[in-house]
Amino acid sequence: MLKRAGFLAFFLLVVCAGFLYAADDSTSPKVREFVMADSPQSLSLDPLHTFTSFESQFYTAIYEGLVVADPLTLEPVPGVARSWESNEDGKIWTFFLRPDAYYSNGDRVRARDFVASWLRMIDPANNAEYSFFYDVIKGAHAYRTGAQKDPSTVGITAVNDEELRVELETPAAHFLKLLTHISFLPLHPSLLRSTGWANGSTVIGNGPFVMRSRSDAEILLEKNPRYWDAEHVGVDTLRIRFMDDANEATDGYVAGRIQWVTRSLINGDKLQPTDKLEVYPMFGTTYFFFATDQPVWSDWRVRRGLALLVPWDQVRTKDQFSFPSELVIPSIPNYPVVKGIADQQVAEGKKLLAEAGYPEGKGLPALTVIVSSESQGMKAIVQKMADAWKSLVGLDVIVKEVEPNAYLAESRKNDFTIAEATWIGDYADPLTFLQLWTSGSNLNDAHFSDKDYDAAVNEAISMTDARKRYRRLADAEQILLTKAAILPLDHSPAINLINIAVIGGWFSNPLDIHPFKFLNFKARAIPPGIAYASPRQ
To answer: Is residue 477 assigned to a domain?
Structure first.
């Protein structure tokens, strides 16, 4: 009987541990393979033309910049740079690189690699989407716009192999946070001299992991033994699976074969009572935007007039996973109050249309809205807007459905009137939204251009007083909303399926970025009431 009881206790321990940590060898500390499931994603290995949230997450595995975002606070912490300092007025920054920072092929990461990689990002011939982020650096704007041809005029200097000096146009309170962005990564010199590697199955990187294989179904990565902090990387193998079946992905999680499932692949009906979704506010906004440089729609009175005719109480509907809002910037402590279009105002809307030369909508051309063919919710919203415009001012609306994988490219063609987008902040600051729609932004798909807006944003960049800086940024947001270039819908939360009782180093944060370097399998714990007894030899 005693042996039986001992066996039962041992059996229960194994079963309970299997339930909590999954009885799959992939989760064993000996193997330490972490599996993430995401929907099929486009992926370029070249930071030159990357701007999706998936790429931002993936790059935390294969690359590392001067600083990285702390996984909990998102504050900048040392990466390739072991330390840094600035002069008294905050315009000159010096970064001291680690002598043990290496690329995956064994070459050292040197200061001149940052200079060459950054100049490539702002080379006007490359037209990189995020090149406008560099405008904070002295001479960068003139160089990337072609006004200055000499790259040596840009304030980026390699003092020696381990010392990088950066001179700014003006002091910038957000500068260190900006450096956590993927556009400021260093590339191995060989990549700067070659082409065709962006879609390859491997790449020379300096991050905590190295790509071993890549297919349409998955990407396999292994810990980079040459990474300067390899001993603290808690996962040996990282596998990213691309799946389009939420049932399969959720089943894989429940069975312990997958540790992290992203929002689009979660089927809540299949979860066990003990499974817990990680749901938290995200620094992101879903919105409509006008093609503001087109005839008729370039007049802000027309845009605002139509926006005021929309029955927003029917369009912005609240559910457990959305927070309707008429504002661009999600809630931030101490950010000033800004007023958007919160409700329908038919009389005021018609008045603005009449002032613009279109009384009761007469003379307005048909309006084209593009929408993802798989987004039933968004199609229903667009239909409500179209019905209101048709009934109130006789406006014809053409709804053009686009395949999800082609939507991003379609929204950049500028052959529509209104498109929908979701923007997740690149770093934790209002500027990551508002700089998007400045005249010099390469990601300004609305083609919005307003001198007062540009002035407010540019002035805010140089301000060090936090209260005054927020006030000017709020001024810019007010212009954007008043002139109805952007019509916000909601601030959606991040939703992930991951057991943080088992997985360490993964923290809820408003950017929904979770650097792979910090992930680890927590030590197994014996469930309460179960005593472990080793079998006799």
So the answer is: yes
Residue 327 lies in a domain: yes
The reply to whether 7 falls in a domain is no
Domain of 337: which CATH number? 3.10.105.10
In the block, residue with structure tokens 């590392």: 64
Asked whether residue 52 falls in the same domain as residue 29, the answer is no
* Model pTM score: 0.82
Q: Out of 53-67, 218-232, 396-410, which region has the weakest mean confidence (pLDDT)?
A: 396-410
For residue 199, the SS3 value is coil
Triad 339, 285, 293: Cα angle to 5° = 75
Same domain, 156 and 258: no
pLDDT in tens, 482-537: 999 999 999 988 899 999 999 999 999 889 999 999 999 997 655 555 444 433 33
Contact 419, 289 (CB under 8 A): yes
Q: What is the pLDDT of residue 18?
A: 33
Is the pLDDT confidence value at 300 over 80?
yes
Largest Cα–Cα distance of the chain, in whole Å?
94
- Residue 414 to residues 80, 276, 366: CA-CA distances in angstroms? 40, 42, 15
Q: What is the residue-averaged pLDDT of the chain? A: 89
Q: Residue 526: which of 21, 137, 103 has the closest Cα?
A: 21
| Co-location of 504 and 453 in the same domain | no
3-state secondary structure of 34: strand
- Judge whether residue 15 has pLDDT over 80: no
Q: How far apart are CA 452 and CA 479, in angstroms?
A: 8
What is the rounded radius of gyration, in angstroms, for the C-alpha atoms of the chain? Answer: 26
Given this model, what pLDDT does residue 381 score? 95
| CATH of residue 101 | 3.90.76.10
How confident is the model at residue 30, as a pLDDT?
Answer: 61
Residues 388, 428, single domain; the answer is: yes
Query: Do both 309 and 409 map to the same domain?
Result: yes
- Domain co-membership, 275 together with 356: no
Pair 299, 447 in one domain? yes
Structure tokens at 160: 């020696």
Confidence of residue 23 (pLDDT cuts 50, 70, 90): very low
Q: What percentage of residues in the chain have a pLDDT greater than 90?
A: 75
Number of domains in the chain: 3
Identify whether residues 36 and 51 lie together within a single domain: no
DSSP codes, 423-469? EE-SSSSTHHHHGGGSTT-TT-TT----HHHHHHHHHHHT---HHHH
- Distances in Å between the alpha carbon of 315 and those of 379, 390, 404, 487? 11, 16, 22, 11
